[in-house]
Amino acid sequence: MCVTCGCSDDGEAKIINLETDEAEHHHTHTLSDGTVITHSHSHDTHIEAPQIHAKIHNTTISLEQDILAKNNLLAAQNRGWFKGRNILALNLMSSPGAGKTTLLTRTINDLKNQLSISVIEGDQETANDAKKIKETGSKVIQINTGTGCHLDALMIERGLQELNPPLNSVVMIENVGNLVCPALFDLGEQAKVVILSVTEGEDKPIKYPHMFRASNIMIITKIDLLPYVDFDVQKCIDYAREINPQIQIFQVSTTTGTGLEKWYAWLIENLKICQR
What we know:
Strand content: 15-25%
């Protein structure tokens, strides 16, 4: 049990490569002497190293370890990995149904002749969203967290090994739909992007302040629905800037394309910054 957010934190995640349709379960165990042991088995087979399990199950594991400290160390390694390859990595976060996947597919399709965009897709179960991304022609890897409510730096490290994104490209990390726990976990990204739809209510920034304080960018989506919903855009912006005065805000509609040009310009410019 994760002492940070209360979700399962047994180090188990399933990474699905949509090219091969193969899935692997990964397990990480930290021993009392600080040794970290990671092993995996495929969905179809369960081959373990007996000597590793013998050592693990005969050892008392301390539950008081600083989970975030371990995550932050791995995140720093991921950040160095991205920097060494001139990759712009973004962590996209939102509540379920805010439009992350729709924004991603529209962005990939509109910019495919200008940017190379790869995706790490996070969900508790299914590869539904990853399949939508794959239809755009983009490289994508699905990470299923099971009972976990967020992606962490170790999952991203493993996902990158499968994804193998090209140099001078963009990696979009679509986090598990949740406005709480993903804000706590650094993945090694250059920027956190929180996505809020007009169907959710303008008070989300003050209801979930940690998420909006941690984010560099807020994208308000589905603005084509404003005539039909009770949503005060200016009040939402004011709440967000009350929490985070430096947050950059885009208002977009993936249906009509309104506002997307500013979002695209930001992506292109920040990839250039990574390449300098």
